[in-house]
Amino acid sequence: MPSLELTNFNIVCATLGGFITVFGLVSYLLKERFYVSEALISMLAGVVFSATNFIRPFDYALESQKNLDLITLYFTRLVLGVQLVLAGVQLPARYLQTEWKSLALLLGPGMAAMWMCSSLVIWVMVPNLSFLHALIVGACVTPTDPVLSNSIVKGKFADSNIPRPLQRFIIAESGANDGLGYPFLFFALYLMKFTGISSDGTTGVGDAMGIWFYDTWGYIIILSIIYGTIVGWLAMKMLHWAEARRYVDRESFLVFAISLALFIVGTCGMIGTDDLLACFVAGNVSTYDDWLRIETLDDSLQPTVDMILNLSIFMWFGAVCPWSSFIKNDGIIPVSRLICLGVLILLPRRMPIIFAMHKFISQVEESSHAAYLGFFGPIGVGAIFYLSVGQQFLQNDMLAGGQRREDAKRVAETLNVVVWFLVICSIVVHGLSVPLGKAGFYIPRTYSRYGTIN
After folding, report:
1. Taken in order 218, 222, 227, 228, is the CA torsion positive or negative?
2. More exposed terminus of the chain, fewer Cβ within 10 Å: N or C?
């Protein structure tokens, strides 16, 4: 006797496949005519599917918040790894080597200024939060997101309004700084651990800075750059060798960058280094001679995989976002302050430092380009990744008497509310900025023309 099999697997496949199919039917209209971000659309879809019980994230995690956080962490690692390798491949030959001065400005003083601006705003707006704890929250939202940045620098609007050198610069900056969020996050986390309440007998700034330099800079950052360079170089040589002997078919050639991303994410995860930075470096090194980029320039496979991952991850975000915590969060921050925080973070977090340095960035030719670069610094998948990393550290390394410290609990709760809210704000604001800007430009002209005729 036939019966309905309403299992989670069947429902997820039907829901995800149905959404991508329907979205695909109107994707050109939405993205190239109305300029609506696919991230915003898929996030809203995730909210609807979760509310109607088509997507049940808590069931998939066996009703464990810890498991749900791990799923989100692994999902973000996968999406970012693939995106960052593809971002590295998209850049011209030796781009990181030739444009290092401009990139160094934004990756050095630029990121530090964004970190400080974000942390100061969070410190002022969130009640009863110390500045050290605000630095932890600010570090999560400092990197610009490569996934959302891709939607900003691709498409008809970008090709018509943004010079190609600036498009490439945005791709390079968002790719590199997403992997460089570790030093900012762990600087504050180690200070909190070693200068706060501790039962292991190790306290003090000296201990924190020693571990920060050795572990974060030495092992996580420098090792990931070296590893990414070696893997990318070997991948380029092996691909040249196989292609010259006609050992590799076209399908395997096109999927090479994606499989390389999976390999780096897995191996870096095993050794505990920065898979995001390694992926971006490997992607750019693998096209050091520009051959791989040119050969895949007209390829539609990589953009297709990119789109499916984007739709999936933002649908997941819409489903797992702790929406109720924005209103009820045990007194962490009132909703009115939370809304003000979202506005203040999106405006001064990035704009002042970009305008201060834009004359020294060769890709920024006009003030309008500086305004664009300053405003479109989205907060997205990377922020959720660092939120998950910070939550794991606060859960496993902030112990006193075998229990998690009270200050660690408070910071973890604040992280969860503030970072998720800022990600949602960024998805909505940056997803609607172009269509609203276009509407604001055309509606007055249309009204004026109509009034003149009458």
Report:
1. positive
2. N
| C-alpha distances out from residue 248 to 79, 243, 299, Å | 26, 6, 16
- CA 238 to chain CA centroid, Å, is 30
**Residue 203 to residues 129, 132, 194, 415, Cα–Cα distance (Å):** 21, 16, 4, 24
DSSP one-letter string for 51-81: HTTS--HHHHTTT-HHHHHHHHHHHHHHHHH
- DSSP assignment of 299-329, as one string? -SHHHHHHHHHHHHHHHHHHHHS-GGGGT-S
Phi, psi of 256 (to 5 degrees): -60, -45
**The two three-digit tokens of residue 295, written as one number:** 């050969």
Domains along the chain with CATH numbers? 40-453 (1.20.1530.20)
For residues 351 and 359, is the Cβ–Cβ distance under 8 A? no
**DSSP reduced 3-state for 274:** coil
For the chain, the residue count is 454
Q: Which amino acid is at 221?
A: I
Write out the DSSP string of 212-266: IIIIIIIIIIIHHHHHHHHHHHHHHHHHHHHHHTT-S-HHHHHTHHHHHHHHHHH
CA–CA distance from 173 to each of 84, 141, 143, 166, 312 (Å)?
11, 15, 9, 10, 24
What totals of helices (H) and strands (E) does the chain contain, helices first?
25, 2
For residue range 164-200, list pLDDT tens digits in order. 888 889 889 988 988 899 999 999 999 998 886 544 5
